[in-house]
Structures are given as structure tokens and as C-alpha cells.
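ok trying again, last paste got cut off:
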Amino acid sequence: MVARLLLSFALLIFPLTGATLHAAEVISLMVDAGFMAVDKPLRAIDFTLQDSQGNTHRLHDQQGKVVMLNFWATWCPPCIHEMPMMEQLLQSYAQQPFALWAVNMQESAQDVAQFMQQKPFHFPALVDAKGEIAAKYMVRGLPTTYLIDCQGKMRGYIVGMLQWTSKATATLVDTLLRDTACQPQTAAASQELPGNKAAQ
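nice, full thing came through this time. structure:
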């Protein structure tokens, strides 16, 4: 009887311990990558914006993917400096359920489109012309990047440049992609990256 009780207790406590260790692991990896971790991850605020090519994107449609949400502007040198690294990260996860959005803050669609036409980037540049989405996300400086997991929950953020190609960032993304909520892309979807000029 005692043995059965101990076994039942073990079955109850081990999953809880494993979940706690996993959460602690993610927080540690986020800190290593330069992010500020969110103590209690909540569902990221949904929004819909058009990109510089006129395509509509809704954040909650990305559930099942790890999402890097980067706020930027064409007049921000650190923003422009980190974009090639953003492109490298995107390409390295082209076959994975991973999305990278660059949300331009308070510039016209024409200015954003002109900028993106001159760059070999494949991530979508979304136009937040009035800064309404940036306000909802309480953006206080540029660049600012938010990290959203496959369950659509905000896990952390960083104000300033991110070392997008660092080993710490890759380890963090790899860990989040192990979540069972992550949905692998189909072969067809992975070949058609947003804003892919070569495919047009």
C-alpha cells in the first residue's frame, strides 16, 4: 500500500518538476542571448498590419511558430546594422516553424517599400505608420525585439541590437522549437519566404 502511494506521488511530482526545469532553462538561455525574460508569459497582443508590398499579416496566424518581432525605423543606424544578421537567422531556419517580422515604426508605406527594394532581405517589413502597434507593445527605443513562442506567448524582449547570429541565440531558438506546439512547415511553404524578390 505504501509502495503504491509513493509511486502515485512520484508520477504526480516528476512532470511538474520537469516543466519547472524547462522553464528555468528557457529563462537562462534567454538571458545568455541578451533578452529580458517575462516572469509570467502571456499571450502576445494580436495585431494585423500590411507589409511594404501590400500583403496583410496577422500575428495570431503565426501560432505554431517561434516569432521574432523586431521594431525598427529607416533612420535608426543600429536597426539597419542588425538587419543582415536577421536575414542570416531567418535563412538558417527556413525549414523550421520560425518567423521574423520587422515592424517599421511611424514611417510611410512608400518610404518603407523604397528602403526594402534596395535590400536583399526576405523577412516582411510591416508598416505601423501611426505607431499604434508599437504603443501597444510599449516600445521605448529602437531597435526593440520581442520573442514569442509557438503557443503565442511572449517570452522576453531586448531593447537595442541583438546578436542574431550568435550561438546563444541559435541555442535559444532551437530550445523553443522543441515545444510540441511548434508545427513544422510544409516543403512548399518553406520555399516561399515572405518578401522573396527572387520568387517574384
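cool. The CA atoms of residues 4 and 10 lie 10 Å apart. The beta strands are 36-37, 48-50, 56-58, 66-72, 98-105, 125-128, 144-148, 154-159.
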